[in-house]
Every structure is written in structure tokens, then in C-alpha cells.
Write a structure and sequence with these properties.
Layout lengths: L8 E7 L5 E13 L3 E6 L3 E4 L4 E3 L4 E6 L4 E8 L2 E9 L3 E3 L2 E13 L5 E4 L1 H11 L3 H20 L8 H19 L1
Parallel strand pairs: 1-10
Antiparallel strand pairs: 1-2, 2-3, 2-4, 3-6, 4-5, 6-7, 7-8, 8-10, 9-10, 10-11
């Protein structure tokens, strides 16, 4: 697997278990790329849904993906604090200048006070039947929901107090470098 290079712009592609594209984020700046971790940032980026509808993200976001965990975390920087949207998903791969993963419906929304809500359990059960999620995937996802909740409670990874500050500063630095190069 190739590794994304800091400062370059890539896409993020979300698929469903049946192989169909679910959603595409057009532009995300690479802040860190290793064999196991991708951290990126975007703001006001165009998002295209599977049905062709498009929309722009509203606020700056820091995106965290891991090649060994079955979730990814979007940290949305809003005026009243950081909100986290956590997707239960396959580990990511970097292919053809895009981060790619399978979205498995279940989501956890985390609020600035670190309270959280598990979302889309009905959608997960419906898609599990329709797309035939194997039992092993079901077990992996449920184990990773517990792991993610543990991270939230322990303020680990993207939930750590200094994570947002460090990666927001890196994003602002890279934006400044890019604007000077133009």
C-alpha cells in the first residue's frame, strides 16, 4: 500500500458491503500518513452521495483513520466545541489517491462534553440482512463499538485533550504553506 504524503490533497471514498459507492469527499488535506494511520483535514469540501446529490461540509473537520481498527472518526470543529462522528467501518486502504473503507451503518455521535449516542442500529440490522453481513463481521463490529466507547471514556486517540489542537495547527500550517506556493 502506498502512503499519502503530508500536504497533498486526496479524496475519501465510503463504500457499502455490497461494493457500491456510498459517499465521496472531494478534497481532504493529508496531515499524517503512515502504514497504519491517516489523519486529514477538510472544510467546505464537496461531498457526493450515491444518488448523485451533493452538499458542502459546514465546518472544518479533522479525520482519523486506522488500518487496524474497524472505525473512523471525524472531529467537527464547531463554535460551541468539538463534535465527533464515529463510523463503524472496515479498516481503511489508500488506493488511487483515495482513502477507501466500507461503512457498516452503525455510528457513534460524541458531544463536546464527551457524552455519546449510538446511532443507526435499525439501519445496521436491515443492511446486515439485505447484504448478508457475515457473522464474523458482526462480531468484529460489536467488539469495535466497545473499543470505541472505551476510547471515548478514556479520552484516547482523537478524544485526547491535545489531539484537536495539534492537528488543527498542522492543518493551518499546511494551508499557509500552500497559499504561499500559489
Amino acid at each position: 500500500m502506498t502512503i499519502p504524503i503530508e500536504g497533498e490533497t486526496i479524496q475519501i471514498h465510503s463504500y457499502k458491503h455490497n461494493g457500491r459507492i456510498h459517499r465521496v469527499w472531494q478534497e481532504t488535506m493529508v496531515l499524517k500518513g503512515t502504514r497504519n494511520i491517516f489523519i486529514g483535514a477538510n472544510e467546505r469540501t464537496l461531498v457526493t452521495e450515491s444518488d448523485g446529490r451533493t452538499w458542502l461540509t459546514r465546518e472544518p473537520s479533522i479525520c482519523y483513520f486506522h488500518a487496524e481498527h474497524w472505525f473512523n472518526i471525524i472531529c467537527m470543529l464547531r463554535e460551541d466545541g468539538v463534535y465527533y462522528y464515529c463510523n463503524m467501518s472496515s479498516p481503511y486502504v489508500f488506493d488511487n489517491n483515495a482513502i477507501k473503507y466500507i461503512d457498516y451503518d452503525l455510528d457513534i455521535k460524541v458531544f463536546p462534553d464527551m457524552s455519546y449516542t449510538l446511532l443507526d442500529e435499525d439501519e445496521y440490522e436491515q443492511h446486515k440482512k439485505e447484504m448478508g453481513y457475515p457473522e464474523v463481521i458482526d462480531k468484529i463490529l460489536k467488539r469495535n463499538v466497545n473499543k470505541l466507547v472505551s476510547w471515548i471514556k478514556q479520552k484516547r486517540g482523537p478524544f485526547a485533550p491535545d489531539f484537536i489542537e495539534v492537528w488543527t495547527n498542522r492543518y493551518l500550517f499546511n494551508k499557509e504553506v500552500q497559499s504561499k506556493e500559489k
